[in-house]
Amino acid sequence: MNRVHFLAWSLAALGASVTMAATAAPAGGLSAAQVIDKNVAARGGLQAWRGVDTLVMSGQLDAGGKKDVKLPFVMTMKRPHKSRFELRFEGQTALQVYDGQQGWKVRPYLGRDEVTPYTPAEAQSAAASAELDGPLVDYARKGTKVALEGTESVEGHRAYKLKLTMKDGTERRLWIDATSFLELKIDGEARKLDGRPHKVAIYYRNYKPEHGLSVPHVLETVVEGVKPARRMTIDRVAVNQPIDDAAFAKPALASAKAAAH
Asked: Which residues have a Cβ under 8 Å from the Cβ of 44 and sit 6 or more positions away?
């Protein structure tokens, strides 16, 4: 889910109704549509996810460094396409907020005591990634086309490799465990380091039942050529908690500072 660096979460809101495209099944195998049906069922079912209007996840984010610092975070999402990410450290709170059309950030760790609007690129990324239920739930309604590119091994697990073409033309690969039919891995947005792009992969681990849904509680982001991997650990998940739309509006510095306390 990708604005928040290693989030890269596949979290999705309902999209407009469009034509579905999925490859035919290889001989003796499953089609892309069948893999997706099994994935959605394994994650709790279509109707269960359609019934989720808000999702709040909190936990810790590995900041790395010699002291192995872990920072508490809260990620809040609300249909359609609203999100808020809070990261707390040293008595300060960094914010990234998206109201479905516009986004803002507060970055005290950079010494910037101001609210900064998203760049056009950040807003485009937010519009594509501010999704609550993942890229495969109701994917046809979201305008996503899916093709099956065979099977591969992911950390010893046989996995179906899916090519996703989003409504805006963005392409991503997603790997589904051939036994559990839960997501194992998704490719993220490449990061530019040392003047050149590095591939990014996000691994989904430690699935647990939450309110009738199956939710990964560890997300690990691996950047090609960079060690160690970064880990996000989710300790608590709240579903359909009442959340006012004001939480996703342009933040005031006073409220950001108050959140730190």
From this structure: 212, 213, 214
